[in-house]
Design goal:
Blueprint: E1 9-14, H1 18-28, E2 34-38, H2 45-55, E3 70-74, E4 80-85, H3 92-97, H4 100-104, E5 109-113, E6 127-135, E7 138-145
Parallel strand pairs: 2-5, 2-6, 4-5
Antiparallel strand pairs: 1-7, 3-4, 6-7
């Protein structure tokens, strides 16, 4: 899904910088609603999703949708944010059957973990966030518009 022709922003950060990183990501993704969070297991995708939701005024508990596949959160303004975790999917058909296309076309922010499991269902325009472990207490983040 990565496109090397598109400029990306990147930096290394620690947990204490997570709020500022989330604010930067939100600003950079403005106008796009499908946000892919990529990285190996333990890279911090769900932690970043929680921080992004907090910055977008979600007051409820944000948790990994590993078993439910999708969680819906409401912002203080009443807008929905959908959080997907496709790690457990065996095929793209499962995502199609839950109506992922309708969610992606809803105009609401969709945070998508393990999007590599559904490559043909990703829309043409999306925002990609890649996380890598730099060391046990910091992560490298790169993000850009596609």
């Amino acid at each position: 899904m990565a496109n090397p022709e598109l400029a990306t922003m990147g930096r290394v950060f620690g947990l204490q910088d997570l709020s500022n990183v989330s604010k930067d990501v939100i600003k950079s993704a403005e106008g796009l609603t499908v946000w892919l969070l990529t990285g190996e297991m333990g890279a911090g995708k769900t932690t970043l999703a929680k921080s992004i939701c907090r910055e977008l005024s979600v007051k409820e508990v944000v948790s990994s949708p590993t078993f439910s596949i999708i969680n819906e959160y409401k912002t203080s303004q009443g807008k929905s944010i959908f959080h997907f975790d496709f790690y457990r999917l065996k095929s793209e058909v499962e995502a199609y059957d839950i109506g992922v296309n309708e969610y992606f076309e809803s105009g609401n922010i969709c945070l998508v973990e393990w999007a590599e499991k559904i490559p043909s269902l990703i829309p043409d325009h999306y925002f990609e966030i890649t996380l890598q472990m730099s060391d046990p207490t910091s992560r490298a983040i790169n993000y850009g518009r596609h």
